[in-house]
Amino acid sequence: MSDLHDVEELAPTPGQRVKAAMAAKDVRVTIVFGIIITAFFVFIGLWFYPKFMPEVMSENMKRGKDVIVYFTVISAPIAGIVIAMALYTLFDRHKGDTPPPEAANFRGHTPIIFSWTIVSAIFCIIAIVWGLTEMNVNAEANATNAKTALTVEVTGSQWVWTFNYPELGVQSQNLNLPLDRPVIFRVTSVDVNHSFWPVQLGVKVDANDKVTTLARTTPNKLGHIEVKCAELCGLYHAYMETTGEVMAPADFNQWVTSLGGHTA
Amino acid sequence: MTTLEHAKVEGSRPNPPKSLITKLHMGTGMIVGIIFAEAMYFWGKSMWDVEVPMEENRILTLSMFAWCIGFLIGIGAFIGPFRWLIGKDLTDEEQLFLAGKGQGVSRYFRYCTDHKVVGIQYLVGVMVMLGAGGTMAMMIRTNLITPGSKWVNAEIYNSLVGLHGITMIVAMIIVSTGPFGNFILPIMIGARDMAFPRLNALSWWLLFTAIPVLCSAWFYGGIPTGWTAYAPLSVQAGPGMNAFIVTIIIFAISSAVAGANITTTVVAMRAKGMKWNRVPIFVIGATMSVALAVPAFPTFMLSQIMAAFDRTIGTHFFDANFGGSGWLYAHLFWIMGHPEVYVILIPGVAILMEVAPVFARSPLFSYTTAVVGFAGIVGLSVLVWAHHMYISGWMPTLNGPFMVTTELISIPTGLIFLVLLGTIWRGRPWMKLPMLGVYALLWNFLIGGITGIYLSDVPADDYLHGSMFVTAHFHYTLMGAALTGAIAGLAYWFPKMTGRMLDERPGYISFWLVQIGFQVLFLGMFAAGSQGQPRRVADYEQKFAISDLISSIGAYMVGIGMIVLLYAVVHSWRKGKIAPMNPWGAKTLEWTVPYPIYLENFHEAPIVTGDFYGYGKSEK
């Protein structure tokens, strides 16, 4: 008997604790739920957002889209555990007008609090490192592309976008760009704040009066671009939009020439 | 009326003191306010030309301030301070009169210093504001039901967006700390009243003066700027913008007064034995929220004062042509703007942390973790404002650091989930209305939190910034989490505030309509945002049509649900079942006082010997 008594006095090791927890029915059911819900959110991430997001026409757009898709997948287990735990408690509801019986006196559990904090910190660090890496990739691409880039001066005014190609001597209301050539948007405004948003290119930058802000990208797919304003700019903000085209270089040169510009 | 019963118990009406104070009420305030405003308007017109926009702005802004000051003089807010100037103070009878002793319903229309009266005033005020803001939301969604809809024109649409935004933001800032922070919080900590009862009345009546000012924006052509009121658009805007500016300045003063008051009350007036680790978690949450508002709102006020100067006397704070900068405005705004979302969120979550132990009959899971979670959010929230400006171009190299601080907030936020989950885990939840809010919050705040992580990531934000995705995200946090918490708080404390139970059937119907409609509404909006629909647009292309239609259907469900809730509240307040003293079997101090609550709350000052979460079978 005394031997058994001694064993009980010893604090259980973390391994034993996990084993004991897994033996409980509620924990096992919750884990099964959690896995199902995680799978659901993974599905949402891989299916829902890609289905809705517009065509990817640049590396920037791809990186933005990847973040949304993969962050959903990464956070799926978190959603899984939270929802599964909440759902499980709903199996044994109490009804009526008198309070339910007292539950266990469970005021905290230091190992759980610590591991929860550490796991959420790991998720947080993954998100931070991912974001910083992508920003760095963007910045490096911009630096290498700077020399060959085509400059487009974008001017927002209430409620029209104007595109000026200073190297080509052309001005247009449509944003046409050559395929696979880096482009620098030099964005400004002549009145209130606007926000220049060529949707399929995945970049966005505010247009402010007397200031030039920069956005850089490289269109890598032929197709149609929508240009919108993403900052409320007064009466016809909703209609401050135009279109454009990513063209094969030859077509682009032809377009420039047709407007009386010179091809670079 | 329950208020009349209250008056009966308070004893027969004592002889009112012979004093000017007894003659003043809301009506005299309005009369003096209107006289002041009219006098200022005509004086202004004699000085300046109302046809010149800048001079018109000057006249209108001054008139609106004159209304506010006139109202406060008319309701008697300055009688006490004026007496101090001549070396006197209010007499004891006058003070008792101000506290509403034996006055029945009329004290709700006076400059009443009783915290319970102020709490009810806030509750009704918040409900009116939420009703107005909700109506505007319904109009917005009605206009967006199909592409090309011309139900309202672009000018009215933009005003709807802006005024819906600012009405809801103001309402949400006070939705928990106003009614419950004033009515319940002092009783919860065992205090006889707030630390500064007259300031308490001042904070409510200041807010009250701002409501007609904000409504007047409609009569001056609305605001074209959205609730963010970015300069230079706000400087260019028509006369309706003056109303916005005056509202914000008044509101900032009101919230500073209320914040100083609640903070001081909690620091200085807790019951004997209520050490910091025994303070109820709602009190901690409300205090952190208002303490965060105290440094945050002055920058908003400052930004509006500068905008007012630009508009009325021709300064150039935000005019780039003369060396000003719109970025200056954006910074001032968001230095307030991001702490502000946590000012809204924390009390709502804290209410549910108060609710969860009572209805799961288990102690709050790790009180310390809850406090650390709140403190972490409060601390980080002042370091993240520029994530609203990633794509503004002001300083792209700082996007990285701001992304880091923003994403770090996910750690304390995770602790809050842990506390709620740990509390309900292995309990038998008592599915009353307040408890439903806990589950709704877990789901909504999860979605709101995760989508917040996408938005905090710079490459994703390059795409999503300024889209409907952002709108859906912050509605999930502010409405799905904070408003859910506030409604749960209303259901939880309704018996204590009105003496009657909130009718459950319409309550449940409302809960399910609102929550299901909410998911439909904002999941549709996430889809529209992912597709690339900008926010705040009066019109959109065909390809967003299905997402927007779904959103509008969800919006109507929420609208109907809220009307049902309003019915439940009004009906129960008048004819509901009389509530027992402690219908939920809760342990906090507010449930130890009978309704109607004695003027100074407690006949005997309570003494606290432990914390309030001693639920559960066996105490070790």
In short:
By secondary structure, chain A is of the alpha+beta class. Chain A has 6 helices and 10 strands. Chain B has helices spanning 2-9, 26-47, 53-75, 79-85, 92-98, 115-143, 154-174, 179-188, 197-216, 233-236, 240-268, 281-312, 326-360, 367-381, 399-408, 410-424, 433-456, 458-464, 468-498, 504-531, 545-575.
Describe the protein's topology.
The complex is a heterodimer of chains A (264) and B (620).
Chain A: H1 2-9, H2 14-23, H3 25-52, H4 59-89, H5 110-145, E1 150-157, E2 160-165, E3 170-172, E4 175-178, E5 183-189, E6 194-198, E7 205-207, E8 213-217, E9 223-229, E10 242-247, H6 249-258
Parallel strand pairs in A: 1-5, 4-10
Antiparallel strand pairs in A: 1-2, 2-3, 5-8, 6-7, 6-9, 9-10
Chain B: H1 2-9, H2 26-47, H3 53-75, H4 79-85, H5 92-98, H6 115-143, H7 154-174, H8 179-188, H9 197-216, H10 233-236, H11 240-268, H12 281-312, H13 326-360, H14 367-381, H15 399-408, H16 410-424, H17 433-456, H18 458-464, H19 468-498, H20 504-531, H21 545-575
Helix pairs in contact in B: 2-3, 3-9, 3-11, 6-7, 6-8, 6-9, 6-21, 7-13, 9-11, 11-12, 12-13, 12-14, 13-14, 13-16, 13-17, 13-19, 14-16, 16-17, 17-19, 17-20, 19-20, 20-21
**Approximately how much helix is present in the residues of chain B?**
55-70%
- How would you characterize the largest beta sheet of chain A? 5 strands, mixed
> Count of helices of chain A?
6
Class computed from helices, strands and strand pairing of chain B: mainly alpha
Estimate what percentage of residues of chain A fall within beta strands.
15-25%
CATH superfamily caption of the largest domain in chain A: Cupredoxins -  blue copper proteins
Q: Say what oligomer this is.
A: heterodimer
